[in-house]
From TrEMBL:
Gene Ontology biological process terms, A to Z: lignin catabolic process
EC nos: 1.10.3.2
Molecular function as annotated in GO: copper ion binding; hydroquinone:oxygen oxidoreductase activity
Lineage: Eukaryota, Viridiplantae, Streptophyta, Embryophyta, Tracheophyta
Cross-referenced Pfam families: Cu-oxidase (PF00394), Cu-oxidase_2 (PF07731), Cu-oxidase_3 (PF07732)
Natural source organism: Gossypium australe
Keyword Signal: yes
Main location: secreted
The UniProt record lists the keyword Repeat: yes
Cofactor: Cu cation
Name of the protein in its database record: Laccase
Domain Plastocyanin-like: 38-151, 164-315, 427-557
Cofactor: how bound: Binds 4 Cu cations per monomer.
């Protein structure tokens, strides 16, 4: 199967079909209309046919294409039995929190037969993001790329590529993912793992019955290609490499970075990475695997398999190359648990910190937070046998609070002043009971439960240190913050030392992201300015950990000026 290129005629047809543009102002951008019909469709992978939830019958779903400054109006119509909500992952949603999408946080889900128009404007962002379902495990099949081009007339801070290609990693389950997590939550054990990883929905030739379902990237010699990488997998960080080719990283999470070369990259669920691929100057008489497989730090089971696509050079005219079997080269990926590679790769990511693209990291901090993140346990229900540690149920928490999802959307409760019985504003700013976080685990591994939030005044500058714990084994956790980008000012291993570690913080050119991997057995420090009023979810982007409660929410109060206040809810906001 071939690749769908942004500059192809097919893309232009797609673009004109799904998008209606109304020119408002060349500076402000245009308004683009999309319609997402959420329906069940039969899809076959690994010789298994399943009825899966898709947008517009596409797997992965349709790409959203816009420019910085454009307004997007995306009508989502739910034709399936499941409740649905869509999150526009990484979009800042300045003052438009009603469009952020996490179910029971910024909206009630869209019920069967209902619809909702997500209305937001892309401000100060350009690069690659993605959209996905944000309720239960529906994002296993409901996801697609968001491609944000610079404003017209503004070039990339690197040479313009010949072609641009989205490469979206996912996971395929032969079973229904909704049944997988439902069973796990009922038994208290770990969920069954996926059966394959995918590139643009295709598992590739290393899996049973999948040679025909292989992503092929056809390239010309002597050209540059911008690969827009998205990790939309549910539960796995991934190493990625293309055999005998070097990649240049130029952008992460829709923020430009200082370019650097690498043969392999690491991308966690929730992260995006733009890389430049320079093809070989002449026809190489070979084809090349592009492969991805997991980076694993936890002690649970995981999908220990490899997805492969093929990089294929167009053969010269009047040649016999196309009719002969060419050698196929395979990349060498790091070991499954290569934390050293993960650490070195993360250290290479730096903001451009230029006049045009500054790194506005807060130097003065108003509020300091210290959050432990990790796994724990909760008691087994009476007269039930549970499959978690020592007969308990698996749980996960932030500062030992396992987040209990409300039945009313938090943003609605906040906006209308109806928080009683929905949430409490007493989320702890540091662990209530400190312990040796990365040493011997404590005897008591039980978590507490609650719908607790942090409340901050508008424009508070925040420093947050997130500390991995060894309670049920150290593990890397990709933490995603809705509504904000943040600067990663420091990270290390062992327990964070507030007396020594801040002296080593990078306040000059730290990378700016929306999702960060908390190092296995270590910590990461981030800073951000709370300049976006609303309710903002923060959670581990390993879906199993979110299901177990590794999540919390921030409420940012309105500022004094009209431009610092959350806009009122739209009339079609779904009701619970």
């Amino acid at each position: 199967m071939g690749v769908f290129l942004l500059s192809s005629p097919a893309f232009l047809v797609f673009f004109s079909f799904f998008t209606f543009c109304l020119l408002v102002d060349p500076v402000l951008g245009v308004t683009r209309h999309y319609k997402f019909d959420v329906k069940l469709h039969n899809v076959t992978r690994l010789c298994h046919t399943r009825s899966i939830v898709l947008v517009n019958g596409q797997f992965p779903g349709p790409r959203i294409v816009a420019r910085e400054g454009d307004q997007l109006l995306i009508k989502v119509v739910n034709h399936v039995p499941n409740n649905v909500s869509i999150h526009w992952h990484g979009i800042r949603q300045l003052r438009s929190g009603w469009a952020d999408g996490p179910a029971y946080v910024t909206q009630c889900p869209i019920q069967t037969g209902q619809s909702y128009v997500y209305n937001f404007t892309i401000i100060g962002q350009r690069g690659t993001l993605f959209w996905h379902a944000h309720i239960s495990w529906l994002r296993a099949t409901l996801y697609g790329p968001i491609i944000i081009l610079p404003k017209r007339g503004i070039p990339y801070p690197f040479a313009k590529p010949y072609k641009e290609v989205p490469i979206v990693f996912g996971e395929w389950f032969n079973a229904d993912p909704e049944a997988v997590i439902s069973q796990a939550l009922q038994t208290g054990g770990g969920p069954n793992v996926s059966d394959a990883y995918t590139i643009n929905g295709l598992p590739g030739p290393l899996y049973n019955c999948s040679a025909k379902d292989t992503f092929k990237l056809k390239v010309k010699p002597g050209k540059t290609y911008l690969l827009r990488l998205v990790n939309a997998a549910l539960n796995d960080e991934l190493f990625f490499s293309i055999a005998h080719h070097t990649l240049t990283v130029v952008d992460v999470d829709a923020v430009y970075v200082k370019p650097f070369e690498t043969e392999t990259l690491l991308i966690t669920p929730g992260q995006t990475t733009n890389v430049i691929l320079k093809t070989k100057p002449s026809y190489p008489n070979a084809t090349f695997f592009m492969t991805a497989r997991p980076y694993v730090t936890g002690q649970g089971t995981f999908d220990n398999s490899t997805v492969a696509g093929i990089l294929e050079y167009e053969s010269p005219l009047n040649s016999l190359h196309s009719s002969i079997m060419l050698p196929l080269f395979k990349p060498i990926l790091p070991a499954l648990n290569d934390t050293s590679f993960a650490t070195i790769f993360a250290s290479k990511l730096r903001s451009l910190a230029s006049a045009q693209y500054p790194a506005n990291v807060p130097h003065k901090v108003d509020k300091h937070f210290f959050f432990t993140v990790g796994l724990g346990t909760s008691p087994c229900q009476h007269n039930q046998t549970c499959q978690g540690p020592n007969g308990t149920k698996f749980a996960a928490s932030v500062n030992n609070v396992s987040f209990a999802m409300p039945t009313t959307a938090l943003l609605q409760a906040h906006f209308f002043g109806q928080s009683n019985g929905v949430y409490t504003p007493d989320f702890p700013s540091s662990p209530i009971t400190p312990f040796n976080y990365t040493g011997s685990p404590p005897n008591n591994t039980m978590v507490s439960n609650g719908t607790k939030v942090v409340v901050l005044p508008f424009n508070t500058s925040v420093e947050l240190v997130m500390q991995d714990t060894n309670i049920l084994g150290a593990e890397s956790h990709p933490l995603h913050l809705h509504g904000f980008n943040f600067f990663i000012v420091g990270q290390g291993f062992g327990n964070f030392d507030p007396n020594k570690d801040p002296a080593k913080f990078n306040l000059i050119d730290p990378v700016e992201r929306n999702t960060v991997g908390v190092p296995s057995g270590g910590w990461v420090a981030i800073r951000f300015l709370a300049d976006n009023p609303g309710v903002w979810f923060m959670h581990c982007h390993l879906e199993v950990h979110t299901s177990w409660g590794l999540k919390m929410a921030w409420i940012i109060l309105d500022g004094e000026l009209p431009t610092q206040k959350l806009l009122p809810p739209p009339a079609d906001l779904p009701k619970c």
